[in-house]
Automatic annotation (TrEMBL), chain A:
Membrane-spanning residues: 28-48, 60-78, 103-122, 134-153, 173-200, 306-325, 345-369, 375-395
Keywords: Membrane, Transmembrane, Transmembrane helix
Organism: Companilactobacillus mindensis DSM 14500
Keyword Transmembrane carried by entry: yes
This protein's name: ABC transporter EcsB
A Pfam family that the UniProt record links to this protein: EcsB
A cellular component term, taken from the record's GO annotations: membrane
Signal peptide: none
From TrEMBL, chain B:
Keyword Transmembrane: no
Domain named ABC transporter: residues: 3-233
Organism: Companilactobacillus mindensis DSM 14500
Domain of life: Bacteria
Protein's name according to its UniProt entry: Drug ABC exporter, ATP-binding subunit
InterPro entries with a match to the protein in the record: AAA+_ATPase, ABC_transporter-like_ATP-bd, ABC_transporter-like_CS, ABC_Transporter_VariousFunc, P-loop_NTPase
Keyword field: ATP-binding, Nucleotide-binding, Transport
């Protein structure tokens, strides 16, 4: 079983590595660095404005830390055929899951530590916590998270209940209460509770080795869902086989396509417009990037950073529309239509122009809100328009051509 | 409408699956394309509809090749693939609208025939459904409706009978019969020999990427030295045994 786990892990990591390499390409790195930089800039500006302890400082710290502990669960790497082929080995799966838990501890621990580290500046300034308190709470949370990973294991065996209550619920209430007590009264509470909690759950998990009955269906479904979430994330940047996005009818948006006349020239516009609005993936991407951009522009009052954010995000949305064109071009039936490739690209350009124009208008409003009517606003807004024109009429047509056949 | 396949050589990648295939489909003819799995039926069809480019030889529809006039060539063909291919984001109604737009068909007239076909296949109350809600057989019916409502003159159907319920098979055969009466041609590949024997005028037997024999049932019997009462099944088995 140990061997099975290491084999699976090796294959999994190889796979992840393949996708990560594709994601961290030049474009993404650039966006990522700017995003981090802008957020850091905003955060330090924010800290600069805090001169005394805020009344809602502690609640904010509590909420953020509570959410940080929720991140991450156990990656079991179970596969569908396991429930048929490895059914006889059920008893030995306990060992397998122990290895899985050890491996899965890394990410959540790093997350909790990082969040604590980044939050510490605010916690000491805005919430008035001493450094020793912050460290005690951070260590307590890490131990707590290590303990709560056991709940994932108990769930796999259908043993995640205390009396009539779900363990996850009880555990979260305990966490919240401990956090409140730790921040307001006595910071060591978190650590003490966490250690007790950790030992309690570890003892519970030990009983699984002898008397546990693995819930195969639940275990495999949970892992599938986890994988799907990861793949869907990767799919935003690159093509992941087997990931199909959710389709929603969105009848209330039908008016959007009304201006598209039903004639042969508009065949592809008809198709692209509906596809974009109904496919959660591309619409979601557009909305997320547009909203993040608008929020950043409304908060940052540095001319150069705003300029970069405006240009970069318009480029990014345009760039990320490419896979949608590719997806449609992979449909065999459309390749048989008596319609030329040039028309397909022209129709796609119409769609992407409409999308980017919406984004541009929204970002322009955010810029005007922050900088007012003036030269700075004008320069940023025109720069955005220039990127829009460049992406749609120079960059994309060349890029899309290679997807035609 | 005549389809001429002349000395067609081609396939995927570097390997030539098809070696100098030659056969014709005449106006008003229903032709059955028959062969073992992997014999080259689907590959032949993919060359005719223009998804693959021939490495040698020619494919002409009414004397023009895909190369001569892409749009004119494509308008003459309607294709029903073996596995249904639909747009996940479009409803059934929108699939029909899109096909009408793509082929530049008359909106009202085409909808009339589409409605008739939809009724035949009991899809007329599912116009607002998405492909993900359809079963495989229903998807296949959608493909059939979208193909047979066009004014194409050559209908190419890949394995139409597997996956359809018996009633739908019967309906499809009626539709094929009507198209034939209207002077259109139909080329279908299939393994359901008993059905195709009764409904096709001519058969093209493909083996190892070559046309082993073609002609009417009687002509085939003569070629394979078979008895008068033998059927397509017997001929098929005889052809397959030639390899042994």
């Amino acid at each position: 079983m140990g061997q099975l786990w290491s084999e699976r892990l090796r294959r999994h990591q190889l796979n992840q590595f393949k996708y990560l390499r594709l994601i961290f390409n030049d474009n993404f790195m650039l966006a990522f660095i700017v995003l981090i930089g802008a957020l850091g800039f905003w955060y330090s500006n924010l800290l600069g404005t805090i001169h005394q302890t805020l009344t809602f400082g502690k609640p904010i710290v509590i909420v953020i830390l509570f959410l940080a502990v929720q991140v991450g669960g156990i990656a079991t790497l179970l596969e569908e055929p396991d429930s048929t082929f490895l059914l006889v080995k059920e008893k030995e799966f306990y060992k397998y899951f122990r290895s899985a838990k050890n491996y899965s501890s890394f990410m959540p621990v790093v997350t909790v530590a990082m969040v604590n580290f980044l939050l510490s500046a605010f916690a000491s300034r805005g919430a008035g916590l001493r450094i020793i308190d912050i460290v005690a709470i951070a260590v307590g949370l890490i131990v707590y998270k290590l303990g709560s990973l056991n709940i994932n294991l108990l769930e796999l065996y259908g043993r995640d209940k205390i009396g009539n209550f779900k363990m996850r619920l009880v555990s979260n209430i305990l966490l919240l209460v401990s956090l409140i007590v730790a921040t307001y009264l006595f910071s060591w509470t978190m650590l003490i509770v966490a250690v007790l909690y950790y030992f309690f759950l570890n003892a519970r998990v030990k009983t699984l080795e002898t008397s546990g009955q693995l819930q195969w269906k639940y275990a495999i479904e949970t892992e599938n869902q986890r994988m799907f979430r990861i793949k869907r994330f990767y799919n935003l940047f690159t093509d992941v086989p087997g990931v199909t996005s959710k389709i929603r009818r969105r009848k209330w948006l039908d008016w959007l396509y009304q201006p598209i006349k039903k004639n042969p020239k508009n065949t592809y516009l008809y198709l692209f417009a509906r596809g974009f609005v109904r496919n959660n993936e591309y619409l979601g991407l557009f909305l997320r990037l547009t909203i993040i951009q608008a929020i950043m522009l409304a908060l940052i009052d540095n001319f150069y950073i705003s300029l970069i954010v405006e240009m970069l995000f318009i480029y990014l949305v345009g760039f990320q529309l490419k896979p949608y064109f590719k997806e449609v071009m992979q449909n065999l039936m459309q390749r048989l239509y008596p319609i030329r490739g040039k028309t397909k690209i022209a129709d796609f350009t119409k769609l992407s122009t409409a999308i980017l124009l919406i984004q541009w208008v929204i970002s322009a409003i955010a810029i005007l809100y922050k900088f007012g009517f003036g030269m700075n606003s004008l320069i940023i807004i025109i720069a955005g328009l220039a990127v829009l024109i460049f992406v749609n009429y120079f960059y994309m047509p060349r890029q899309l051509k290679k997807y035609l056949d | 409408m005549t389809l001429e396949v002349k000395e067609l050589t081609g396939g995927y990648g570097q390997v030539s699956v098809l070696k100098k295939e030659t056969f014709t489909v005449e106006s008003g003819q229903v032709v059955g394309l028959i062969g073992l799995n992997g014999a080259g039926k689907s590959t032949t069809i993919k060359h005719i509809i223009g998804l693959l480019t021939p490495r040698g030889g020619q494919i002409l529809i009414d004397g023009i090749s895909l190369h001569d006039d892409v749009e004119k060539y494509r308008k003459k063909i309607a294709y029903v693939p073996e596995m249904p291919i639909l747009y996940p984001e479009l409803t059934l109604r929108e699939h029909i609208d899109l096909t009408i737009m793509a082929y530049g068909l008359d909106h009202d007239k085409t909808w009339e025939s589409a409605n008739q076909l939809l009724k035949t296949f009991r899809l007329d109350n599912k116009l607002d459904w998405f492909p993900q809600n359809f079963s495989k057989g229903m998807k296949q019916k959608v493909m059939i409706v979208c193909a047979f409502m066009t004014d194409a003159s050559l209908f190419i159907i890949d394995e139409p009978f597997t996956g359809l319920d018996p009633l739908a098979v019967n309906d499809l055969l009626n539709i094929v019969e009507n198209k034939k009466k209207a002077g259109c041609s139909v080329l279908m590949s299939t393994h359901v020999l008993a059905t195709v024997q009764d409904h096709a005028d001519k058969f093209v037997l493909i083996n190892h990427g070559q046309v082993r024999a073609d002609g009417t049932l009687d002509q085939l019997k003569a070629k394979f030295n078979m008895q008068q009462d033998s059927n397509l099944d017997d001929i098929y088995i005889k052809m397959s045994n030639e390899d042994l």
